[in-house]
Structures are given as structure tokens and as C-alpha cells.
Amino acid sequence: LSDLQTGKRTPDYNSAVCRDRVMRYARKIVALSSVQRLHHPVRHCVVPMLGDMIEGVDIFPGQQWLIDSTLYAQLFETTPSLLAEFMRHLLANFDTVTVYAVDGNHGRIGRKGQFGPTDNADRMLYRILALLMRDEPRFQLHMTDPVGERNWYQVMHLGEYSAMLIHGDQIRGHSGFPWYGLSKKVNGWGSGGIPERFNDVFMGHYHQLGRIPLNQRSVWANGSTESTNTFAAETLAAQSEPCQWLLYVDPEAGRVTASYGVDLRED
């Protein structure tokens, strides 16, 4: 789950549309899991939250004209209630729900350098979600909390399977998806750039659904719940339908066994 950017306003996207699409995603997770269960048990649900859960208000010039709500509303009203509803829907259909969370760039408060890297609204949102769900023993939230540093990555372990989780703004590029930059960074991290070992990489940020094979690893690039991004149309000549990945993992075999690009347009 990533790149909800609640509070963002485009010609056909706003906080209310975001809520509809996130809950549609929850229903489709349950429906597709019912199909998988015809073959094998699916008891546990894991939600990597890859950042940009809110839009923010002042991370680039002119953003104030492209939002439908304040930072206060994004952080304490619309988004926490939506995420809690999403989690409770999943808990009604799985034995456990576990979240692994990293920060996005839209969580930054103000322009770069105005606040410290720990002052990230995504991180605050995850703490609020943990408080909202604190009475649910079947729910867990994992977030790294480095002193004085942004929560920019963590490695998620599901039995023998592992994935490095990032938002994706660590990958530099221009005029579209940064294929070369992605390969360079992932191969660098995998060869010792971070101390942990990992099978795959999960990322968001680019609002493009894709699976990119890099030798023995796959990068799972997530989509967004938004639609009609006029900035992307003008600057990148690119658009994407609202969508999110849904993956099934065999923790004993240590691999992804099935993948669905979940279409979040109207039913």
C-alpha cells in the first residue's frame, strides 16, 4: 500500500475518491485470497506501507493550489481513519495483519532542510495508526526509528523470503522511470550497501506498476490510487490507472508464488 497522497486534488481525484479506492482494494484482496484458498491456506496478511500516504502541503512551490485539505486534516482526520478501516477489514478475513512501514518524500514537512529528517508526516501517521489499533492483538506494526535519520528503508522477513522496502525517491532519474538508476542502486545495496541480505525490493514513488527483474532479484514497483496526474502528463508524458500490487508468498520456499496488479477503477 503506497502513494495514496490523501489530500491531493486532481481533476478526478481527492480524499473521498482515495477512500473509495483503498476500500475497493481491501475487498479485492479478500476476493482474490478466496481464489488462492481453493488451492492452499492463506492465513496471514502483510501490508508493506511504502510512503506518501499523505500529500503534504508545502514540499514544492504551488502545492497549496493542488490539495483539498490541510496537513492537520490529512494527518489526524482522513488518513488515520481510512487506514484503520482498511486494517479492520483485513483482520475480519485473516488471522493476523502485519504492517512494515517506511517514509515517503511527501511526508516531509516543508522544503528540504527546513526540518530534521525524523520530522516526517508518514512516520507520525504510522504512530497514530499503531495507537488506533493498540487493542487489537492480531495487528502489528514494524517501523525502524533511527536516531536523527529518516526511516528510509527496512528489510521485511517472511520466513525464508525477504524484501528490502523503500519509498523510491532514493532512485534518481528524469523523464520517466529510472531504469539505470534502479539497477545501480539495487545491485549496490545487494552487494553490501546495506548490511542486511534480501531477495527482492518493494518500492513506490513513480506511480507505475511494474516488475523489473535484476538477475536473481525482482523489483516490485507499486502504483498509486490517484488518477489524471496533470503534472505527469505535461512533464513526463505519462499516466497510469489507479492500481496496487497484491503478492502471495510461500514463506517456506522463500519466493513469490502469485502476483496480481489490482485495478482500482470503479467496479
Summarize the model shown.
This protein has 267 residues and is of the alpha/beta class. The chain is 28% helix and 22% strand.
SSE topology:
Blueprint: H1 15-36, E1 44-49, H2 71-91, E2 96-101, H3 121-132, E3 139-143, E4 153-158, E5 161-166, H4 179-193, E6 200-203, E7 210-214, E8 217-221, H5 230-235, E9 243-250, E10 255-263
Parallel strand pairs: 1-2, 2-3, 5-6, 6-8
Antiparallel strand pairs: 4-5, 7-8, 9-10
Helix pairs in contact: 1-2, 2-3
Gyration radius, to the nearest Å?
18 Å
Mean pLDDT: 93
Order of neighbouring strands in the sheet with most strands? 4-5-6-8-7
Parts with pLDDT < 50 across at least 5 consecutive residues: none
Give the termini separation: 19 Å
Strand residue percentage: 15-25%
H/E series: HEHEHEEEHEEEHEE
Structural class: alpha/beta
> Globular, elongated, flat, extended or rod-shaped: what is the shape?
globular
Give the total of beta strands.
Answer: 10
Helix content: 25-40%
Q: Helical region count?
A: 5
Biggest sheet features: 5 strands, mixed
